[in-house]
Design goal:
The complex is a heterodimer. By secondary structure, chain A is an alpha/beta fold. Chain A has one domain: P-loop containing nucleotide triphosphate hydrolases (Rossmann fold, 3-Layer(aba) Sandwich), CATH 3.40.50. Chain A is built from 7 helices and 10 strands. In chain A, the strands form 2 sheets. A 6-stranded mixed beta sheet of chain A has the order 6-7-8-3-9-10, sandwiched between helices. The longest helix of chain A has 17 residues. Chain A is globular and about 50 Å long. The two termini of chain A are about 15 Å apart. By secondary structure, chain B is α+β, with helices and mostly antiparallel strands. Chain B folds into 2 domains: about 190 residues, no CATH class; about 200 residues, no CATH class. In chain B, the strands form 2 sheets. A 9-stranded mixed beta sheet of chain B has the order 6-7-5-8-4-3-10-1-11. In chain B, α2 runs antiparallel to α9 and α2 packs across α11. The longest helix of chain B is centred in the last third of the chain and has 44 residues. Chain B is elongated, with a radius of gyration of 30 Å. The two termini of chain B are about 30 Å apart. The chains are: A alpha/beta, B alpha+beta. At the A-B interface, α2 and α3 of A face α1, α10, α11 and α13 of B.
Chain lengths: ~220, ~400
């Protein structure tokens, strides 16, 4: 499903070259849940962005369903992201001018999803337990509620791959448990592939495989 | 609920920062309003000049040399005036080489006009035997010559056909009103035959409290039509050479006087508009640069969701176009309202003719103003939109933190 080959990403800071991702290789099978753990600044978020085609690697390649994503044109890659994958971030990623339902529906504005996407968006809203907040704007939602809306949004395009960066960071235990349950359900029922960057031991424990990242390099610590 | 569209996102974003949006709307409104009202104003002056000079129908106007300024003021600003010269001038002018037709006119300034105290009415008397400027209009519209006690009036004289108005104690019946020309010389004038004018003057001694003295051998001006192949300027020079004490004003000279005034006005308006436009472009460009900068993360997130570069570009451009069109329409409405409100005051101070352009020309000017405001919006947001669309999604999300 996902094949990461000798992937590197460097940044130049004050004339010094910093390797955020250093010659990383691993594969993720279809329907697999992989967690990546590691200290802050170890390169986890950059790795996730490289897999999602949000930033270009210095060297190496990412193949998704045997397609090298960086050989696609920018428009093709955008359409590919829109169809095949979705992201969950560690910060509030909702558009403040849109209601909860509209935020969930937002990715469908950039692809061909037909007119009636609201029905599925409402299902997802119910799934994250915020049915009554359909018309609420982000400013009227708590941090946890906003995160749940963002998680619902990550499934609106029925993605094959979800790339989640600290999806339960700053959340209370109850919300955390709901999110873990949702991930499990989507992984088992819909066969969604998850790559989750986390500090959360419960989420990490859910994953069939666990990778550890340090100084830009990845080592497999379980599964495989 | 239907799918979200780029346009909806743009509208919501503009509503989110409504104070900034209002300021941008005002900037576009001021520039578009200034430009539209200025172009309507100048177009109206040109229109009046074109129709007015056509209506004048004469290539040269011969007046007493000492009354040149008054004659020009009468022609251009319709300022009522009275001056006289000997009728023999008419006979002399008719014989000058290059003159095809010549006809005398009398200009009279009534001291009072009871029905129309707020309008400076100008009395113009023509000779039906030689006239070639008023008579064609009479033949076409009244289908009969003007009788001794009849007058025709310009469009701004507040009377109706059939009304009776006294001038210097003599009552006259309104036989017709002329179409508007934008030139007060026609629009605020009353036309009668020269015989009527002489009789009115003679009767004024017994019928009017303010009698006038006007001998039958006096005229105010001679209107001249030049022969084909001759220029009005050349014939004017010949007239002044052949006849002492007269000034021959070529119609081209009158037009060029106005054109010179218009050109000065146009330069001023263009300079102001250009400065305003430049400032508007800078301010809007800066505003859109700020918009893109403060929404970097949001734009990066949209890209991560699958928005193409074109979607991000369209989003920023849509916001600019919405501001441009809305601001443009507001500006056009306010500009037109101000123009209508202060038209008389401006015209009075400029002393220039004015006739509202035709509906077709107005539609052209309004379309041009709308296009201009859209171009302003597009130009000001082009660079920020291109830069927003080119941002790498991950960098945009990271920098926006």
């Amino acid at each position: 499903m996902i094949e990461v080959k000798e992937l590197s990403k460097t940044y130049s800071i004050d004339g010094q070259v910093f390797r955020a991702v250093d010659n990383v290789s691993f594969t993720v099978r279809r329907g697999e849940m992989v967690s990546i753990i590691g200290h802050s600044g170890s390169g986890k978020t950059t790795l996730l962005s490289l897999i999602g085609g949000l930033t270009k690697p210095a060297s190496g390649s990412v193949l998704i369903e045997d397609r090298a994503i960086w050989s696609m044109s920018d428009d093709e890659l955008s359409a590919f992201r829109n169809r095949k994958m979705n992201f969950i971030y560690q910060f509030s990623s909702l558009v403040p001018t849109l209601t909860s339902l509209e935020n969930i529906m937002l990715p469908t504005a950039f692809g061909d999803y037909g007119e009636d996407v609201a029905g599925y968006a409402r299902e997802l809203l119910a799934l994250v337990g915020l049915k009554e907040k359909e018309n609420s704007y982000p400013s009227h939602l708590s941090g946890g509620q906003q995160r749940r809306i963002a998680i619902a949004r990550a499934f609106i395009n029925r993605p094959d791959i979800v790339l989640a960066d600290e999806p339960t960071g700053d959340l209370d235990e109850e919300t955390e448990a709901e999110i873990i349950s949702l991930f499990t359900r989507m992984n088992k029922d819909a066969g969604t592939t998850f790559v989750v960057v986390t500090h959360n031991k419960d989420i990490a424990a859910l994953a069939a495989r666990r990778l550890k990242m340090a100084n830009g390099a990845v080592t497999e610590i379980s599964g495989g | 609920m239907k799918k979200i569209k780029i346009y909806n996102l743009a509208v919501r974003n503009l509503r989110r920062k409504y104070i900034r949006t209002v300021v941008l709307l005002l900037i576009v409104a001021v520039v578009t309003g200034t430009l539209l009202s200025a172009t309507i104003f100048i177009s109206g002056m040109k229109n009046a000049l074109r129709i007015g000079t056509y209506r004048l129908g004469a290539d040269v106007l011969v007046v007493p040399a000492q009354n040149e300024a008054q004659a020009k003021a009468a022609l251009l600003a319709g300022e009522p005036t009275s001056f006289y010269m000997d009728r023999s001038v008419f006979e002399k002018v008719a014989k000058v080489d290059g003159v095809k037709k010549a006809s005398p006119q009398l200009f009279l300034k009534p001291s009072s006009f009871t029905c129309c105290y707020n309008v400076d009415v100008f009395l113009i008397a023509f000779d039906p035997k030689t006239d070639f400027t008023i008579s064609p209009w009479l033949e076409k519209n009244l289908k009969k010559p003007l009788t001794d006690n009849e007058i025709i009036t310009g469009r701004e004289v507040p009377v109706l056909v059939g009304d009776t108005i006294p001038f210097f104690g003599t009552p006259f019946t309104v036989a017709g009103t002329m179409e508007p020309t934008g030139m007060k010389f026609f629009d605020q004038s009353v036309f009668m035959t020269m015989d009527s004018a002489y009789d009115m003057a003679a009767n004024s001694k017994t019928k009017s409290l303010q009698p006038i003295t006007l001998d039958r051998d006096k005229i105010s001006a001679v209107l001249v039509q030049v022969q084909e192949g001759m220029t009005p300027e050349r014939v004017a020079i010949r007239i002044e050479h052949d006849i002492d004490g007269v000034k021959a004003i070529a119609s081209d000279e009158v037009i060029s006087t106005v054109r010179r005034q218009l050109a000065g006005l146009l330069k001023g308006i263009l300079a102001i508009s250009a400065v305003l436009w430049g400032l508007a472009l800078l301010m809007m460009g800066f505003a859109f640069y700020m918009i893109v900068n403060e929404r970097q993360r949001e734009l990066g997130l949209l890209r991560a969701m699958g928005a193409k570069k074109g979607h991000v570009f369209a989003l920023i451009i849509s916001e600019a176009v919405i501001i441009s069109i809305t601001g443009g329409v507001i500006g056009m409405a306010i500009g037109s309202a101000l123009l209508l409100t202060f038209k008389k005051l401006i015209l009075h101070s400029l002393k220039l003719p004015y006739l509202l352009p035709s509906a077709g020309v107005l539609i052209e000017l309004i379309t041009g103003a709308v296009l201009f405001s859209i171009i302003t919006g597009l130009l000001s947001s082009l660079l920020p939109a291109v830069s927003a669309s080119r941002m790498e999604p991950y960098e945009a999300i990271r920098k926006g933190e």
